[in-house]
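Tutorial handout. Part one gives the primary structure; part two gives the three-dimensional structure as tokens.
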Amino acid sequence: MDDNQTIVLRGEGEPGENNGPKGDLYIVVHVKRHKIYTRKGNNVLCDIPITFTQATLGAQLSIPMVDGTEVTYSIPDATQTGTRFVIRSKGFKSLNGGGQGDFVFTVQVQVPKKLTSEQRTLLLELAKTMNEQPPVKKKGIFG
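Part two.
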């Protein structure tokens, strides 16, 4: 069920006037928000944090599904933050039997907030081998 969908139970409402037939019962569904997952139709969406090294080298991720299971998914090397991946038919089932939605996750690369001196040294050495330069601002016609 999706948020604000209505279920109608025919003949399950209050009795009609003057011994008339029972009315219908209308139930409006309100879906509580989840702290990890969001929903778009039958698709499940979520953000998955990954480390700098997982993004750079590629990795096998264990992705938690809404039903409590986990799916192992391989992300390729050089994955950028904001990249979306789709696991087919792992979303919500259609009420009308029209198939099943997908599980769509977006990776968010987490940059370490603290480094050991060894990690810092290794990253500096890596930076030297990559000939890194700070981005150059190009001047436009307005300065």
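Part three, for discussion. The two ends are 54 Å apart (CA to CA). The mean pLDDT is 88.
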